[in-house]
Design brief:
Gypsy retrotransposon integrase-like protein 1, RNaseH-like_sf, nucleic acid binding, mainly alpha, 0% strand, RNaseH_sf
């Protein structure tokens, strides 16, 4: 959590710059940036891991029909099935990467650890 808090503080600082009065207006942008940033360990964003896709970044990326309702991208059953299989492979890959990162952290943390005898 300390690392996460450090990242959040850095993001807030980068968005508010010198105007500290209205930092709360930037919270949605900061949250979006954190959720869509590619993680060093997983190589994908948290949003992608949760939803299987990265969210649209601007209104221009949304397609609207004449009545103003969003038109979903056409998805064929075969394409959807393929994307689900790819997502399962990505989850397995992320699990392996997280375990490797855990082992690296564990090794460096325990580098100077000496067993205690009581």
């Amino acid at each position: 959590t300390e690392r996460t808090n450090r990242v959040i503080k850095t993001a807030i600082r980068s968005y508010i710059k010198d105007n500290h009065r209205h930092w709360d207006r930037e919270i949605a942008k900061i949250g979006f940036a954190l959720r869509t940033a590619t993680h060093d360990t997983t190589k994908v964003s948290p949003a992608f891991l949760n939803f299987g896709r990265n969210p649209k970044k601007s209104g221009a990326e949304h397609r609207l029909d004449v009545s103003g309702h969003e038109v979903p991208d056409p998805v064929e059953p075969e394409g959807y099935s393929l994307s689900i299989r790819k997502l399962q492979d990505i989850y397995k890959d992320v699990e392996v990467r997280l375990h490797q990162a855990y082992e690296r952290s564990k090794r460096s943390y325990n580098l100077r650890h000496r067993p205690q005898v009581y």
